[in-house]
């Protein structure tokens, strides 16, 4: 701990340390730039919206806040694998399908309580996954704005979970907040520029 004397100003710390303390936000911004590069339509981001719900559902089902990062890794692999298939919509449907075994596993493990755990996260997954499914079906500008709205809604979800420290580790909530917000803004910019 650094203290200031009347003769010396307080040290604010090394800039690298400040970045390291905020690594989830930095990672979220970098990941958002990666995802947004070459963005053309809202349908491209439907899997991200679905993944956002699945990460929270998976952590709640496993009853381990730290499980959010491994579940995120699984969603990353599923979304990345789409580049090697002829079905560009597959990741959204696969991620929605993965919600079922997570939910069943959580229920079998007794994760139905507390209410902000598996029950609330299952509702969240239904909302975010359902919005992503609608985007896949309608596409166009409406789909782009729906993805942006869904991601901003999930950003609020992230803030709530970061503040309460429930369901996922704070680093995941911080990462997701930055990622969701920046991607939503990018989607709106792309849609407005047609």
Architecture overview:
The chain has helices at 15-21, 23-36, 46-62, 68-81, 90-108, 118-138, 140-164, 170-192. It has one domain (42-79, 87-192). Helix 4 runs antiparallel to helix 5. The protein is mostly helical. 72% of the residues lie in helices and 0% in strands.
Layout of strands and helices, then pairs:
Layout: H1 15-21, H2 23-36, H3 46-62, H4 68-81, H5 90-108, H6 118-138, H7 140-164, H8 170-192
Helix pairs in contact: 2-8, 3-4, 3-5, 3-6, 3-7, 4-5, 5-6, 6-7, 7-8
Structure described in brief:
With 194 residues, the protein is mainly α.
Element order: H for helix, E for strand:
HHHHHHHH
**Percent of residues in β-strands:** under 5%
Distance linking N and C termini: 52 Å
- Helical amount: over 70%
Q: What's the main sheet like?
A: none
The global form is globular
Instruction: Describe the oligomeric state of these chains in a short phrase.
Output: single chain
Unreliable parts? none
**Mean pLDDT score, rounded?**
89
Number of helices: 8
| Rg (CA only) | 18 Å
How many structural domains? 1
Distinctive features:
194 residues, mainly alpha, 8 helices, globular, transmembrane
